[in-house]
Amino acid sequence: MDRHWGPRRRGTRARGGTALGRAGAIAAACAIAAAVPATADAGSCPSDSFDRGGTCTTHRAAAAEVARITRAMMAERHARAMIVRVEIGARTVVRRAFGTSMAGVPARPEMRFRPGSMTIPLLTTLALQLQDAKRLDLDAPLARWYPRYPNADRVTLRMLASSTSGYPDYAQGNQAFVTRWLGDPFRRWTDDELLRYAFAQPAACAPGACFHYAHTNFVLLGRVLERVTGRSVATMLTRRFLRPLGMRQTRISKLATVPEPALHAYVSERGVYEESTSWSPSWGLGDGLIMTTTARDMAAMIRAIGSGRLVSRTARRELVAPLSRGLEHAPPIIDYALGIVVAKGWLFQNPQFNGYHGIVARLPVRRMTIVLENTLGPLADPQSISATLFGRLTQYLTPDRGLRF
């Protein structure tokens, strides 16, 4: 299932793991690459270099070191394939793929995959746009639109967007759902079915008292936005983001097909290593957020969100405000904001969904973007390989903002 920071979204897990997980903890590691023998002053690096912790490092040297770190990580954690994209400023420094999509078919950087929770920041940005337009108030209670759900008079839209509503998940920790899902992974789920599984469980806490990632939150938030606008989430995301941002390879669909060229995914959920590329994605985040995409398109998305240009300055501050901090069950080291994770200036999401594991990240102060997507080999470590690699790359590329988990 898809894992996230805090509770992850559905992803895959080998060695008896579960695809319904939370984002894997990121482990940090340091690496040193060849550098231009000069100390960097602000803005003083040559055009073919960047400031890496006070030292001007060439893009070519950085690309070579990123490749070395990636290969070592894949061997250590038994990844099958890894797509890597690193952008620094206006330059794409790394655009590569490692390993194989299928037997005898090398992975390629343009291959399509399921982004899972990488798409959540689009939904929360849409909500902020509607608030900017005075059509929505994130502090309004869910009961204004859907009074029949538990605690709807106390759960606000901001709580839904930040996973602080206390609502239970229909996936993670829900054995009845997991059993049904694994019994028929090709089943097409409706949002109403998923919500019934969610609310058959007890609440995780009182509204606003804890951080508890639940797909339930984003299904409900999407429904509210549809009721406010009279348009589907899919239509709004396409018109406001996919087309304007040039995300031409991204498709919104609950169908199981991943368009070619597809990065094929594999899981060990049912006691055997098997392909999961065509498993139904319909249990994900609700209509409109289930997509197929590419690393290039995800980079375009996170650049735009990180820049703040899609919303007002006030809304940008709301987007990254650390709403999970200090709450019960809040994840250590990182903060969960409005559908996005914040740590040392990095903004990111870390999904695991039907065998696809990834990271999409932006460090606005350095104009740096990292997109990773991996699949698992039969002996793969159950933790998120992309998350661990992301930590190691931040330690190398941005030593002063490297992430240790």
From TrEMBL:
Top-rank taxon, per record: Bacteria
Signal peptide: 1-40
Pfam family, one: Beta-lactamase
Entry keyword annotation includes Signal: yes
InterPro entries: AmpC-like (IPR050491), Beta-lactam-related (IPR001466), Beta-lactam/transpept-like (IPR012338)
Keyword terms, alphabetized: Signal
The keyword Glycoprotein is assigned to this record: no
Domain Beta-lactamase-related: 66-372
Protein name: Alkaline D-peptidase
Organism classification: Bacteria, Bacillati, Actinomycetota, Thermoleophilia, Solirubrobacterales
